[in-house]
């Protein structure tokens, strides 16, 4: 009896020890796979850059990389604002039109009214905030679906832009034009993109407002029952998205030295795509500034690389559509594995 017990006890540690020896291997491979799943956009960006470097020597050059940064700046700034909205399980289809409205209003007050340039820049940002706040009030207090409320704002903002401009470009203020210039070798659009990203990261990860956004996106009813002022937070979220949209419009205008009535058309889709590619879930409750930045850069790299390879713009749309579908597929898989 004692011999049997001794054998049993001696065999058990061996089994446990064996289990512990095997487990780290499975755990390591599992953690690597999970990391790649959670950082699919970064992995995709690295693979894409390596592939384009092999395909063409013109890709990994300093001028071209700077060009990619400038090209991604406007979409990235829009996407940072969209990140707040998508984290709360919302959507904003108006950011492209609000970008045009903020820029056009700024240019109008400079060229037609004669206000100082820095004041017109602030007016442009305020118009973005106001448009976003109106959308947020319609959603939070008017109970309109986010899709409908922002779709209406998209039409209204574009219409006001066309009324102000009468369909023609308006020269912008020097203070706005400065946002599109290069100083000491640093393009201002890239600098503005970096600053906008830092603010987005700080709000999401270091403030009560950011934590509240994740709570609302995870479960709005639970957030309300826990005492969060859900309606006020939603208004703030859409107002923030409006400010980011106006800033993107001003950066775009600075590069052209004039406000264009058709600026930002279709940019809302690129912004949504950048956020989703960056790992945010359209169901809400997840998303981060770094992922959004990678998503925006990935879109710019795809367009830039295909342009260098002389691929038709028609095919570029197909490729970007496939990338978006793959990103959403990763999101579905990630949600299943997390359950």
TrEMBL record:
InterPro entries noted in UniProt: ABC_transp_permease
Keywords: Cell inner membrane, Cell membrane, Membrane, Transmembrane, Transmembrane helix, Transport
Pfam families membership: BPD_transp_2 (PF02653)
Full protein name: ABC transporter permease
Region (Disordered) residue spans: 1-23
Organism of provenance: Corynebacterium callunae DSM 20147
GO (cellular component) term, any one: plasma membrane
Protein origin, superkingdom: Bacteria
């Amino acid at each position: 009896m004692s011999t049997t017990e001794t054998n049993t006890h001696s065999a058990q540690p061996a089994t446990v020890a064996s289990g512990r020896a095997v487990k780290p291997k499975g755990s390591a491979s599992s953690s690597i796979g999970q990391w790649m799943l959670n950082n699919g956009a970064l992995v995709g960006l690295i693979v894409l850059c390596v592939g384009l470097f092999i395909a063409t020597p013109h890709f990994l050059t300093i001028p071209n990389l700077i060009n990619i940064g400038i090209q991604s700046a406007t979409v990235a700034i829009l996407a940072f604002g969209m990140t707040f909205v998508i984290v709360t399980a919302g959507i904003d289809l108006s950011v492209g039109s609000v970008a045009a409205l903020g820029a056009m209003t700024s240019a109008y007050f400079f060229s037609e009214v004669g206000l100082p340039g820095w004041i017109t820049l602030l007016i442009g940002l305020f118009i973005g905030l106001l448009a976003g706040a109106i959308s947020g009030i319609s959603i939070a207090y008017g109970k309109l679906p986010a899709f409908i409320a922002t779709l209406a704002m998209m039409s209204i903002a574009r219409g006001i832009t066309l009324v102000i401009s009468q369909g023609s470009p308006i020269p912008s203020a020097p203070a706005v034009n400065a946002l599109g210039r290069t100083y000491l070798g640093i393009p201002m659009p890239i600098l503005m993109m970096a600053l906008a990203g830092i603010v987005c990261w700080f709000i999401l990860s270091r403030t009560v407002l950011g934590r509240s956004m994740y709570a609302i996106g995870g479960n709005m009813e639970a957030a309300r029952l826990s005492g969060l002022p859900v309606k006020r937070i939603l208004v703030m979220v859409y107002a923030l998205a409006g400010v980011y949209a106006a800033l993107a419009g001003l950066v775009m205008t600075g590069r052209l030295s004039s406000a264009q009535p058709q600026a930002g058309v279709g940019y809302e889709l690129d912004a949504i795509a950048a956020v989703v590619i960056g790992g945010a879930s359209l169901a809400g409750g997840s998303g981060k500034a770094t992922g959004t930045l990678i998503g925006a850069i990935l879109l710019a790299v795809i367009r830039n690389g295909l342009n260098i390879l002389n691929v038709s713009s028609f095919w570029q749309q197909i490729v970007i559509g496939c990338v978006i579908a793959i990103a959403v597929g990763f999101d579905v898989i990630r949600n299943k594995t997390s359950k």
